Amino acid sequence: MSTANRILFIPGKNPKPPVDEHRQQLLRCLLRGVGRADPVVARQIEADGDAFRLIGWNPLYYQSYKPLDEDFLWIDRLLSQDGPTHEDVNEALSFRRRTAWLLYTLADIFNFLIPLLPDPAVKSTVQETARYFSNEGNIGQQVRELLKAPLRDMFARDERVMIIGHSMGSVIAYDALWELTHIEKNPGRVDLFLTIGSPLGMRFTQQRLLGWHEQGKRRYPHDIRHWINMASQGDLTALDPTLRDDFRAMLELGVVQSLTDVNGGIFNYFRNAQGLNVHRSYGYLVNPRLGEVVARWWKEGA
After folding, report:
1. Is 129:168 a contact under the CB 8 Å cutoff?
2. What's the first-to-final CA gap in the chain, in angstroms?
3. C-alpha angle 268-273-276 in degrees, rounded to nearest 5
4. 8-state DSSP, 260
5. Nearest to 57 by CA among 156, 161, 128
6. Using an 8 Å Cβ cutoff, are 247 and 195 in contact?
7. How far is CA 302 from CA 6, 8, 162, in A?
8. For a designed S-S bond to 33, which of 7, 161, 250, 291 qualifies (C-beta 3.0 to 4.6 A apart)?
């Protein structure tokens, strides 16, 4: 009898739709991406009601919801496309975005520049994480517990687990995995940690991670077998789209078996009334490159 495959998705910042509604839309997009890579696997995931689980931390953190109808038609539009348009590609690779990337890189090195950033979305990402990193009102611990609780159960049942961490969700997941290793001494391991649109390459983020100021093996989580990081073209939240160089010591210390960056030629073509948003999780999930990663992982455990 094969081991059950379980996919845990932990979203990025901002209020989200009610958890069940949000999960349904994320799953629609994931099935689209996987289906473009391997339709058989997509049908298997869809048929298993326990295969995909959303870790809905946002209502606890923000004490509010975002109406689904703000995005629903745009998600339908995204699902109707087979790929990015020429306009999407040109905008993602535009000089404006390259100039912004340089400015944000400087702000990551010199944090006093952060209030001067012109993009409110990127600036708010940095500012909103302050409450999480300071654990104000124990909020950091509370949101990590939402991920750790199901992980403990899945580890106890020896289930095969993939975590998909989007944006700030990848930071929460990393910290939770560090705690399971070093605070709880839990021997379980996540088979694949897939980070998408992640700020884990930013110095601002790294300096605030749990364990980052420790030495040797204690600095890193030990419960990740394989780590794949994916960043779309022009995604400024994934300011440094390569994580292997930042976390290479995990390979050298033998606490992770592989760490791979996948960032060339990946386009996130989610659009809404505000225009192209190359960071949205829906746009990542429909991408066949992500679908290939999920399909391959699923089949390895079949």
Report:
1. yes
2. 9
3. 25
4. E
5. 128
6. no
7. 12, 18, 14
8. 291
Could you count the other beta carbons within 10 Å of the beta carbon of residue 207? 11
Place of tokens 């104000």: 136
DSSP 218-246: GGS-S-EEEEEEE--TT-SSSSS---TTT
116 or 9, which is more confident: 9
pLDDT on residue 110: 47
What sign for the dihedral angle of Cα 98, 103, 104, 109? Answer: positive
Q: Could you please report the per-residue DSSP string of 32-77?
A: HHHHHH-HHHHHHHHH-TTSEEE---HHHHHS----GGGTHHHHHH
The pTM (predicted TM-score) of the whole model is 0.92
CA proximity to 51, closest of 21, 8, 3: 8
| pLDDT tens digits, one per residue of 32-63 | 999 999 999 999 999 999 999 999 999 999 99
Of the candidates 138, 141, 194, the residue with the CA atom closest to the CA atom of residue 167: 194
DSSP at 4: P
How far apart CA 150 and CA 126 sit, in angstroms, is 28
Rg from Cα positions in the chain? 18
* Interatomic CA distance for residues 68 and 175, integer angstroms: 29
DSSP three-state, residue 265 = coil
Query: Does residue 194 contact residue 162 with C-beta atoms inside 8 Å?
Result: yes
pLDDT digits (tens, 9 = 90+) for 6-27: 999 999 999 999 999 999 999 9
Nearest to 54 by CA among 20, 29, 30: 20
**In this structure, are residues 12 and 57 in contact, taking their beta carbons and an 8 Å threshold?**
no
pLDDT at 222: 99
Q: Cα(145)–Cα(135) distance, rounded to whole angstroms?
A: 13
Over residues 196-212, the pLDDT tens digits come to 999 999 888 899 999 99
